[in-house]
Design goal:
Helix content is 86%, strand content 0%. It contains 2 helices and no strands. It starts with a helix and ends with a helix. The model has no long low-confidence stretch (mean pLDDT 91).
């Protein structure tokens, strides 16, 4: 993965889901029957946010490794 954009997108979707769960659970309120859906929305959002962060970091790491390899090739 060479581009950080997919990481940004996945993280953004996760943060939107977290925001929805927060607003729904704290500001609007929920009925006990809605709790499973609220929990899935919040946990899913947190999972996507973490996955997006890992994807972004992997793209940065790959770009740094490529830059190092290119620099080493120029030195030879």
């Amino acid at each position: 993965m060479s581009s950080p954009i997919p990481g940004y997108l996945v993280c953004g979707i996760g943060l939107v889901l977290l925001a929805i769960a927060f607003v729904w659970g704290v500001v609007i309120g929920y009925y006990p029957k809605d709790l499973p859906l609220l929990a899935v929305t919040g946990l899913g959002g947190a999972g996507l946010a973490l996955l997006g962060q890992r994807m972004f970091q992997a793209a940065q790491r790959q770009a740094a490794e490529k830059e190092i390899a290119d620099r080493e090739m120029k030195e030879l």
